[in-house]
Design goal:
CATH topology of the largest domain: Rossmann fold
Number of strands: 12
CATH class of the largest domain: Alpha Beta
Largest sheet: 7 strands, parallel
CATH architecture of the largest domain: 3-Layer(aba) Sandwich
CATH superfamily of the largest domain: NAD(P)-binding Rossmann-like Domain
Mean pLDDT: 95
Amino acid sequence: MLVAADVDRSLHDRAAKDGRFEIVDHPVRSEEELAAIVGDCEVLVTRSFHRVTRRVIDAAPRLEVIAQGTSGTDNIDAAAARERGITILNLPGANAGAVAELVIGFMIALTRSVPAYTREVARGVWNRDDCASRHELRHHPLGIVGLGEVGRRVARLAGAFGMRVSAVDPYITNFYNAARVDSLDDLLRNSDIVTLHVPLTEETRRMIGAKEIASMPRGAILINAARGEVVDQTAAIDALRSNHLGGLAFDVFHPEPPNGGFPDDPRLILTPHIAGCTHEAKSAIGAKLFEKIARFYGDRNHP
């Protein structure tokens, strides 16, 4: 078992107690590094930043399982894996609570101008004159694109704040506590805040571009904690600069890490793909990922 990612020790500890696995702990980041070390592995443990390409898969002739503790597996060449009969294991929803909490945090920070006030107070400026022009979350209609594990949790948390929640997702029928919207255009036009929670597919790649952003209400807030390729990042930054967008939060980028070029703007929040990264989520992912691996090889009442 090659652990090519920084995974919680619970995975290592359970694998060691199982006795069937020889663990090689060798975290790497680049495709070149990964291809260089996979040679003898049968189980490969990765993270979403790894590019598990055909080149990597071809370099591992004994590979049987690719195990990744995320819901999305768009970083893995699924066709190359299928051709070899390699199983891809993932964990839908394992860190959904962590992602949803940070998204709600983005909403509060941007609607209440927290970054801007922080800068002012740090400079010695005590400006409360405009604070009553800010609104509570319940004032803002929320639009969720993608109502999977994360989207549903965002909807539930937003409902606790009294927000009017709408969602668009053509692949589900149960919209839980969100109102169903049939088209992305309708959702964008009628939402003060839009948050994206879709997997990266050919359908969702660049689904939010200049045209879609222009259809949003002036002063709206856009949040992306899905995948960087889902949004035309340049178009979103341009819309912020022109004041069409009133706030923008990116936790994901394309490429990662990004190449820079972001404006110094308190209406812009940038985090380094950490929405799903908490102590609780990481601990749960390590244990659950090993459980899936153990089940694949025939559960021996794993410890």
